[in-house]
Amino acid sequence: MSVKKTKLLRAFGKVLFLLYVVFLIYFLFLAEWYGRTEVSEEYRYNLELFREIKRFIVYREQLGAFAVFANLCGNILIFVPYGFFISMASRSRGFFKTLISSMGLSLCVEIVQLFTRVGSFDVDDILLNTVGGVLGYIIFALCNGIRRRYYERKREKR
Hints:
The structure is a single chain. The protein is mainly alpha-helical. It has seven helices and two strands. Strands 1-2 form a two-stranded parallel sheet. The radius of gyration is 19 Å and the shape is elongated. 22% of the residues are buried.
């Protein structure tokens, strides 16, 4: 792949990343359908790892499939684009960099939710978000490997 195409691809990744961040801010702090417009009178937090995950699994019948999916899978899925786009837009990428940056961003989101009292601070969310970011990196690495192999084969045929 030419240098020009690589730069264009990275620029595209940066634009997608920016759009994703705007979506993330809206979804995590402003989305009405997810109850983000209500500000709680008290601080809500969970500092015990796996507490909320267990609760959602144990009470899945009472909570309903949507609530369980939204909490467990949603927290993973919402960070998959982060892991993908940050790797796509960055020159220095790697598994551990994505792991740390996903965890850092998730921690920042949880801290903002705690202090603004929109949502709650939950260590389980940090874990699930980090897993999502890492999955995004893995998807990027697979796609990037396929792309590189394609261009190598194309170059060899010349």
